[in-house]
# Entry
Amino acid sequence: MKREPTPPAHCTFEPEDWLRLAKCWHPVARACDVGPAPVKATLLDEQLVIYRIHDQVVVARDVCPHRGVPLTLGYHDEHGIVC
# Structure
């Protein structure tokens, strides 16, 4: 079962507008600007972390699921971002 995305807390968009925009692709960084160090970005009021691992660009929510702190405050090891 596929869940429909939900706007982040404190979203400044109207919910219908956010849902419509969330279905589209949006650039958040240039590939040449993304390396192993975490890069912060915001898309549709959602805080994101972007980094590169093994030549793959990874984009995720900028929050550690264990500690609740921004992953952009962490560092890169060989397997991903460590908070």
